[in-house]
Amino acid sequence: FCVMRRWWSSTPGSRPSSCCAMLTAVRPRCFQRFFTAPTCLQRSLELGIVLDRFTPDEGFVSGWRRWTASTLAIVSLRRVLPEFTVPAFKDIAASKFNEVGAALATADVSTLRQLTTPSCFQAMKASLSARPKGQRHRWHSLRTEARIKQVRIGHNASSLDLKFVQVTVEMDAQLIWQIRGAKGEMIGGAGDESNPFRANDYWVFERCLSEGVDRSAAWRLKERLDIAVPKGADSPTDKANQVGTE
Q1: Which of the 8 DSSP states describes residue 164?
Q2: DSSP labels, 67-115
Q3: What is the mean pLDDT of residues 21-28?
Q4: Do the Cβ atoms of 181 and 77 come closer than 8 Å?
Q5: What share of the chain is helix, strand, coil (3-state, %, to 5)?
Q6: Domain ranges of the chain
Q7: I need a labelling partner for 204 at 20 to 30 A (CA). Which of 95, 121, 196, 223 fits?
Q8: Stated pTM of the model
Q9: Where does the pLDDT of residue 244 fall: very low under 50, low under 70, confident under 90, or very high at 90 and above?
Q10: Which has the closest alpha carbon to 84: 162, 151, 173?
């Protein structure tokens, strides 16, 4: 959904960087992507970068180091949030995946603001502003499974007093996504009830852990990582970019 280094790619035929493009049809059966540089407008609300950007299949040694670092991070996290458990967070991540998708489909800016960090929200808001008037979008998830891949804790170089935790999650979902024009005609989308679209994404969720910050605040979407997906699966943006070309 969101990528820090490059939110949008404007190069024709290039791999889409954000699932927001999936929900922005500029003309029937054609999708426009935008470039927006990330900004950190409020120091207390988000970390400036994604810590130790996750990449799959790095080999046994790298995988072991990543697992060890994640385990230590979880131990530190539970000192601040004793209620944190892996099974519970997987449910939270799956729920937020569906909430973000539904909010994008209905152009619910208020909900998106609550579900995402400021930089991620700005990119999504821009995509909604570019959506043609009269378009109607439908997002329905039939199954969503979340798998935690990495946990990291860190802080901004200029704000040592503010600690953040970031959890990278692999999202595997079956969904239905439809776009209809002003007259109700189908102009794009992917999947249906009998053959849902399989989406595979890597999301980074973030939360502030510092004293003086409301620790009851919900986890928020920080970024969608631009990672190659397994054979037989795809990112929703990749599928959206193919609409009208097959």
Answers
A1: E
A2: HHHHHHHHHHHHHH-TT--HHHHHHHHHHHHHHHHHHHHTT-HHHHHHH
A3: 37
A4: no
A5: 30, 30, 40
A6: 19-242
A7: 196
A8: 0.73
A9: very low
A10: 151
